[in-house]
Design brief:
Length: 386
């Protein structure tokens, strides 16, 4: 079975290599990934996948499948780039890896049963669309979700931060500033909120971090700033802790509003990120297959302080999000232009294809071994009951 997938995937190398380079050469902003989405869908359709474009009325999202039975194994694609910078985090190669896995699995899916699913998730750098998909029930009939991320080291899937993206806005009075020296402004509200927040951070839950920017504060000192706003990333190990900190920040803003008599409002300017709950049994299975395909040096589960949109998916269905080393020069740092350039190197593509085969082999193990699949689901339900 594995040899059959290896042989078939090797015939797809030219297509996948071209796609990887095309995505790299044509970086697109979040929710504007039209070239990427079309290129991916065209490739999947050419290999017999049933592709639904404009999925959930999202122009650059898609849902592709091949097979008609359970279990359903899902591979995720992300393909937006950092505005003005390109694919600094290697979404072009992440997508290539997921497509390679889906093509390899599709070769044997009619023999073993199950369904290979590929979901296109646009807008990752602006909170992503996975939370929308979860709310719409997209993952309710999916058994397993897999995604392998290019990086500077190979590590098993760990955890990620929970992030609440809170916006606080104050509304004050209009007028000329030199005629209203004794008037509190909306900007005063934001600055006072910042100062109070800095003073009481010690009282926040442990391991909570609050990052903030002044996103609006007037456009000329001649006029009172009518509207001022700040954006916050409230970051914690778990969403429950992040929500506690969010409530404290809301209380501060309400207090400031009453104190200086300016109006306030709250909103979320992006989708929140839930923490990733990695399935350890699935981790071990994938690591075994990774070694079988020639990637031997695998580090322990990596916990990251960034938010991952797959976090909310991991509370709906068993998931892993491992990391694959794609660099030969160990001085290259993740998230740099040098890293982006590395994602189209021969070594990176070779690593990507090894990861693809390992993901596909993991899917085959789960489809053909119901006991193993049940073990993974048992772990999932136990963790999510806590």
């Amino acid at each position: 079975m594995n040899q059959e997938m290896i042989s078939y995937l090797s015939t797809c190398y030219d297509e996948l290599r071209t796609l990887n380079r095309d995505l790299y050469a044509n970086p697109e902003d979040s929710y504007k990934e039209f070239f990427a989405c079309d290129s991916i869908c065209n490739l999947l359709e050419s290999h017999g996948f049933d592709v639904k474009r404009n999925f959930l009325d999202l122009e650059t999202s898609f849902y592709a499948s091949k097979g008609n039975t359970y279990p359903k194994i899902c591979f995720l694609c992300e393909y937006d780039a950092v505005p003005g910078e390109g694919h600094l985090t290697g979404h072009n190669l992440l997508t290539t890896t997921s497509l390679g896995a889906s093509l390899a699995l599709s070769k044997v899916i009619d023999k073993i049963g199950g369904t290979a699913v590929v979901i296109g998730c646009p807008g990752e750098y602006r909170g992503g669309t996975k939370s929308i998909m979860v709310k719409q029930g997209v993952f309710d009939d999916i058994d397993i979700v897999l995604a392998a991320h290019p990086d500077v080291t190979t590590n098993e899937s760990g955890t990620s931060a929970a992030i609440v993206p809170l916006k606080i806005k104050f509304l004050g009075n209009s007028g000329l500033s030199f005629l209203n020296n004794d008037t509190y402004t909306s900007l005063d509200g934001i600055l006072l909120t910042f100062n109070i927040l800095n003073s009481i951070l010690k009282g926040f839950p442990k391991d909570v971090e609050v990052n903030s920017i002044l996103s609006q504060g007037g456009f000329t000192p001649l006029l009172l700033p009518i509207e001022s706003e700040a954006q916050f990333y409230i970051r914690a190990k778990e969403m429950d802790m992040a929500r506690i900190a969010e409530n404290k920040l809301r209380e501060i803003a309400i207090y400031v509003s009453k104190l200086i008599r300016v109006q306030y409002s709250f909103s979320l300017y992006e989708c929140p990120n839930e923490e990733l709950i990695t399935n350890r049994t699935l981790n071990r299975l994938f690591s075994h297959n990774l070694k079988e395909n020639g990637i031997i040096d695998i580090g322990p589960p990596r916990d990251v302080r960034s938010g991952l949109s797959i976090g909310i998916v991991s509370k709906t269905v068993p998931c892993i999000h491992p990391y694959i080393k794609v660099i030969e020069d160990n001085s290259i740092r993740y998230g740099t232009k040098e890293f982006a350039e590395t994602t189209i190197s021969p070594f990176a593509f070779e690593q990507s294809m090894k990861a693809s085969l390992s993901l596909a082999a993991t899917a085959v193990d789960l489809i053909t071994n119901n006991t193993l699949l049940n073990e993974i689901k048992d772990e999932f339900f136990k963790k999510n009951k806590r």
